[in-house]
Amino acid sequence: MVAASNTLAFWQNPVGVNIPNDPLKFLYITDEAEHMMVSWLAHRVFEYQQKYVGTERQFTKMIMITMGALLPGVLLQDYITHCATPDMPHIEFGTFGVKCYLGPGQPLQHPEIVQPLSIDVHGHTVGMVEDLIDLGGTARFVRNTLTSEKYGARDVVTIAPYRKSAAATDDMESITFGLIPHDTWVITPRERVETMVKRVPFWASQGADRATCITNLRRIGYPQYILDDWFDTAWMRVDI
Question: Which of 102, 121, 128, 125 is nearest to 185 (CA)?
């Protein structure tokens, strides 16, 4: 996986890594890949802005869904702020905290608001930045929330590197880079340690020893420095 991961084409339709006795596959997003995908998304955002020039459909606000979208969101903000043409409207960025997962493969029954909306979106077309459109629940929840009478957004368009299902959000406009299978857990740069400390105990519960867990992480793509610095923390979570 690592050898192929230097091309944009690979990341548009990537394949996760199988781990013995684990129902999930794992896709480790490299720093370079994250930047490439967001650069691609920035071009698509500018194309969207040109398509709707002079109309109310142009983005004037963008909301980063925390915590997952903070990294792609701030990277996107860099392009949007410094590369927009003079005729494009200024876009204000803000945050909105919505929790959807307890851990890998553990979705909450209903999304939870964990941080209030930080900017006013009333009357604006909003770009909602996510790290992943999974089952569509978060995107739909945020759209319905922001377009409600309380917040008053004109419309919401989802912007995300990945989606797992087109059908889940067919009725919602979106700008996405790639498609990944439903059985694949995406390890973004901001949750590498979180995934490790939550999955190592699961592997141990399935009979994996310390060496096997390290081998699993290397197969997924974890660099040696993370294993050297933080694997012991993950192993301490194992109920031996």
Answer: 102
From residue 220, how far is each of 29, 30, 63, 87, 211 by CA, in Å? Answer: 10, 11, 31, 44, 14
Write the pLDDT tens digit of every residue in 14-65: 999 999 999 999 999 999 999 999 999 999 999 999 999 999 999 999 999 9
Query: Hey, how many other C-beta atoms are within 10 angstroms of the C-beta on 240?
Result: 7
* Residue 166, domain member (yes or no): yes
Could you list the residue range(s) of the whole structural domain that residue 228 is in? 191-240
Name 25's Cβ contacts closer than 8 Å, sequence gap at least 6.
15, 16, 17, 18, 19, 181, 183, 184, 185
Summarised one tens digit per residue, pLDDT across range 141-176 is 899 999 999 999 999 999 999 998 665 556 789 999
**Digit-coded pLDDT (tens) for 200-231:** 999 999 999 999 999 999 999 999 999 999 99
Domain total of the chain: 2
